[in-house]
Amino acid sequence: MDLSDFKQQLSLTATALTEDLKTIRTGRANPIIIEQLVVDAYGGSTKLKLMEMATITTEGPAALVIVPFDPSAIPDIEKAILKSPLGLSPQVQGTRLIIRVPPLSEEQREKYVKLVNQKIEEKRNIVRNHRDDVRKKIKTQFDEKTMTEDEKYRMEKEIDLITQKANTQLLEIKEAKEKEIREI
User: Fold this and answer.
1) What is the pLDDT of residues 10-38, one digit of tens each?
2) 4-21+105-182 homologous superfamily
């Protein structure tokens, strides 16, 4: 039995977590927090991600600058940012929007740390489910006598080791994000 699919699934889970955590705000201005924001553009006829509609850059450590490719989309972008759960207020300056990213309060930091923990737990459940699926396949093969008992135990031990590495990786990602959130 080949465990490369299992390893790949766990790797994809860690990658997905990293991407997911990028959307959680920290005290610094970072374009990533708004890039994936969905904008109802052109009177609601089109749904586009902000990164598909504009150039997003930082201006110093506490400001984001959004320059839409089509200046007529500015009201739509402004509305999407105001409706988002990020708590950001854009200011229109000609053909661009400026977002001042306020420093996080201690209460906000704790809220975001809880959100990180929630996302980590979701991914750990995914890892557990993948592990359980692979173990079921091994048990099936053992029951069908296509695998010896020694092979079964060796595979289970290897699965546990791979799972442990994946969980350690998730923990490292979590600690890095928490550190980033708590940083002032």
Assistant:
1) 999 999 999 888 878 777 788 888 888 89
2) Ribosome-recycling factor (1.10.132.20)
